[in-house]
TrEMBL record:
GO terms for molecular function: adenine binding; adenine phosphoribosyltransferase activity; AMP binding. Keywords: Cytoplasm, Glycosyltransferase, Purine salvage, Transferase. One of its GO terms (cellular component) is cytoplasm. Belongs to the purine/pyrimidine phosphoribosyltransferase family. Its EC number is 2.4.2.7. It is an enzyme of class 2 (transferase). Homodimer. Its main location: cytoplasm. It comes from Mycobacterium saskatchewanense. This is Adenine phosphoribosyltransferase. It holds the Pfam family Pribosyltran. The lineage of its organism: Bacteria, Bacillati, Actinomycetota, Actinomycetes, Mycobacteriales.
Length: 179
């Protein structure tokens, strides 16, 4: 508790995160933030904390799909645009893409190749969970390849034992909660 009965953002996240064993594959413990995002106090606290981190950004980029929720809320609070970094096959062509490994397979991220000029824009990437760093690393490489200046990343929960922060170094990573 902080102050007179007010819980910290980390406490709110920890108390509301649902832990799901063996999803999406055996041996993986999934951190479901749906209850965090559905809770008025928690979502407000998460949005404010992430907006503080992203305050100097020209654009906030959210990673498919739960990162979209937080990134859109942050962009609304900051008065910036939001870019959805999508999983493969969700955007019409042409797209820029980046393939990467994750803890339970491989995947590809995409952004539009037309209609958005990212050159020189200061971007903060937002996602729900930092695990091994594969997704965040791919998003960073994708944005930098098209000329964006990725200044930082912010995540709601960081799974510290999986080494994601080290995998994306020297990118500055901010986490609201660590598990």
């Amino acid at each position: 508790m902080t102050g007179a009965g007010v819980r910290s953002v980390g406490d709110l996240i920890d108390s509301l995160t649902r832990k799901v064993a063996d999803f999406p594959e055996p041996g993986i413990q999934f951190k479901d933030l749906t209850p965090v995002f559905a809770d008025r106090e928690a979502m407000t606290a998460v949005t404010h904390a992430l907006a503080d981190i992203a305050s100097a950004a020209d654009l906030v980029a959210g990673i498919d799909s739960r990162g979209f929720l937080a990134a859109a809320a942050v962009a609304g609070r900051l008065g910036t645009g939001v870019l959805a970094i999508r999983k493969a096959g969700k955007l019409p062509p042409p797209v820029h893409s980046e393939r990467y490994d994750l803890e339970y397979g491989t995947a590809t991220l995409e952004i539009p190749a037309d209609g958005i000029d990212l050159r020189g824009r200061r971007v903060v990437i937002i996602d729900d969970v930092l695990a091994t760093g594969g997704t965040l690393g791919a998003a960073t490489r994708l944005l930098e390849r098209v000329g964006a200046d990725v200044t930082a990343a912010a995540v709601v929960i960081e799974l510290t034992a999986l080494g994601g922060r080290e995998a994306v170094a020297p990118l500055r990573v901010h986490s609201l909660s660590r598990a």
